[in-house]
Amino acid sequence: MANADYLIVGAGSAGAVLAGRLSADPNVEVLLLEAGRDYRSKETPPEFRPRNLSNERSINNPDFYWRELTAQRNRYQQEFAYVRGKGLGGTSTINGLCAIRGIPEDFDRWAELGATGWSWRDVLPAFNRLEADAQFGDSAYHGSDGPVPIYRESEAGWGIMDDALRDAALDAGFPWCEDHNAPGTTGVSPFAMNIKDGERVSTNDAYIDPIRDDRPNLRIIGNAEVDRLEFSGNRVSGVRCTDGRIFSIHTDGTVILSAGAIGSPSIMLRSGIGPEDQLSSMNIAPKSVLPVGMGLQDHALVTCVVPTVESFGRRAVGDRPFNCILRYSSGLPGAGENDMLVMALNQNYWLNQANAGVAIILNQCSSRGRLTLASTDPTAAPVIEMDLLEDQLDYARLVDATEVVRDLLSRKPYRDVASGPALIPAANDIRHVVRDGMHMSGTARMGAPDDPRSVVDPDCRVLGIDGLRVVDTSIMPEITRANPNLTAIMLGEHIAARLNR
Fold it and tell me: Nearest Cα to 372, choosing from 357, 363, 384, 364?
């Protein structure tokens, strides 16, 4: 059914970008399959529009969330619900709207690890192309006419924790930085967000909805959850959905997996692409023996609660939970530039309590987990073991960060709004209370073809298989020192530009 030049699996943060950019050539047939709903921007439920984190009402909407996913953060904790977006726009429809780039050293490190063509200089044009930065669009390091709006709340609109973090950080000697997405910057900054006129802009809003009516060569099919790949010899010929439908590509066409760091490796594993022992245990005939699922990374974080006076502690759900961040370098062994991030948390409306606080995020981490199949049933969630803080240096830097934050919270800007002592995790408790950023990556790592850790080459082609690429956060050789939202969009932009040459 429906032959195509490019068959893209997943309409999320990278897949929607690929579909929008590749279909700009009227001679190229693009088929976009999405496991969730196909819908127009105007049909987005109102609870997904505010410039806020998801609330209880949205989380309970099965049309926009993969409800059955669970993960285990480490051996000290039980399984928990892992949140991923569903439907056009994917996780960009439900995430925290954090428009933070990885730092130049992240991408230069990718190139050092064998991902040639992915250095900072290489990817900067893709970042600029995606942006419409309201403040810095005229800079050489930003874009002004891209589909993704970049907005920073003025300090007049900040909450009490934003103000307190800014003032305490400046008092502690950290520098002020107007634009944390410019290269070589560090310190306390306004938090860039992808919002426009106070509302979320997903990749569906930015890349698909504005162009789909004028692109007869772009076909979008929703409720098409892919089970596995179809082959002709060692070449991918299409995909099979969980309901038995088969979608095919032209003889020289390409299937691009953009189903995310959980979906893409799961599809490959069910298709015979993965570690030999895992395929054998599931009685799956191997097509290409590769370390699929073995390099999983996510940001580790802990939160510190600041009890506030009643008049400050509660904010409406529509108010932005955070507008200010502090990026800094710990200077500890194994750490690079800006390895740590502190985020102001203005509210706790979920619990309706008069408290707020800060989040401490390990932006550069070495711990790696794994994703494996629970069964060959495509409706069964995979087994996700994150192994957060298993690397001792990761643990040491997060413990050190709690002391940095303890110092910040002891300063006058916080004392003025606190009604009692802050609750900061003790070193012995951190592994028990650490959380993930829901920023999974690395489950199909990109690198040199002769690197045993690689699943895809620098052109995102799956090793040992013809006609198959992976473009989403699963290919990241190392997680970026930033929320992966903008990086995921950049991946789509960068590969689309290569394919359109």
Answer: 384
Residue 80: which pLDDT band, with cuts at 50, 70 and 90?
Answer: very high
Q: Which residues are annotated as a binding site for FAD?
A: 91, 226
Gap between the Cα atoms of 54 and 39, Å rounded: 19
pLDDT in tens, 421-461: 999 999 999 999 999 999 999 999 999 999 999 999 999 99
Kindly list the distances between the CA atom of residue 270 and the CA atoms of 10, 208, 244, in Å, as whole numbers in the listed order.
17, 29, 15
The residues pairing with 157 across neighbouring beta strands, listed in sequence order, are none
Q: What is the pLDDT of residue 51?
A: 64
Tokens of 4: 């195509």
pLDDT at 311 over 70: no
Helix (H) or strand (E) holding 274: strand 273-274
- Show binding-site residues: 91, 226
pLDDT beyond 50 at 87: yes
Amino acid of residue 269 = L
Nearest by Cα to 160 from 476, 461, 455, 416: 416
- Answer yes or no: CATH 3.30.410.40 is held by domain 154-190+300-364+389-433: yes
Residue ranges per structural domain of the chain: 3-104+200-297+369-383+439-500, 154-190+300-364+389-433
Mean pLDDT, residues 265-272 taken together? 99
Output the 3-class SS for 305-326.
EEEECHHHHCCCCCCCCCCEEE
Predicted local distance difference test score (pLDDT) of residue 316: 47
Q: Helix, strand, coil % (nearest 5) of the chain?
A: 25, 25, 50
pLDDT digits 0-9 by tens, 202-242? 999 999 999 999 999 999 999 999 999 999 999 999 999 99
Helix (H) or strand (E) holding 264: helix 260-270
- For the beta sheet containing 187-190, the strands, ordered from the edge strand earlier in sequence to the opposite edge, are 187-190, 324-328, 340-345, 355-362, 300-307, 435-436
Reply yes or no on whether 439 is catalytic. yes
- For 7, residues 6+ apart whose C-beta sits below 8 A from its C-beta are 31, 33, 238, 239, 247, 248, 249, 253, 254, 255, 256
Spot the catalytic one: 142, 180, 299, 439: 439
Give me the helix-helix angle, 120-130 and 485-499, nearest 10°: 100
**One-letter identity of residue 352:** N
Question: Which CATH number applies to 3-104+200-297+369-383+439-500?
Answer: 3.50.50.60
Distance CA 5, CA 250 (A): 6
Query: Which token pair is 244?
Result: 């038995």
pLDDT at position 168, please? 99
